[in-house]
Specification:
It is built from 3 helices and 4 strands, in the order αβαββαβ. The protein is an alpha+beta fold and 94 residues long. A 4-stranded antiparallel sheet has the order 2-3-1-4, covered by helices on one side. It is globular.
Length: 94
């Protein structure tokens, strides 16, 4: 029994939930200060692991654990409250 538990614990890393990558198109991002404000709001959401903002392309990428489920409505409000326009979102599992 101990060997089974040890084997399960060692394999646990490979059985962990996959990350989800959200790629969002946003209008109005123009400076690093804008990016910081968006990062700050997204990082307040439990389960968000990493944020990347590409100012030139107007793309915000968020890596989250599997428990996070972003919706278009949620992101529309978050970006509108930050002074930006949310356009679209794509979701991929890593």
């Amino acid at each position: 029994m101990k060997k089974m538990i040890l084997a399960f614990m060692l394999l646990g890393g490979s059985l962990a939930q996959a990350d989800t990558i959200y790629t969002m198109r946003v209008d109005g991002l123009a400076c690093p200060y804008c990016a910081y404000g968006v990062e700050k709001k997204l990082k307040k959401i439990t389960g968000v692991k990493k944020i990347d903002v590409d100012l030139d392309k107007g793309i915000v990428t968020a890596v989250t654990d599997d428990s996070v489920k972003f919706t278009d409505e949620q992101m529309t409000k978050l970006f509108k409250d930050s002074g930006f326009t949310f356009r679209s979102m794509k979701k991929a599992v890593k």
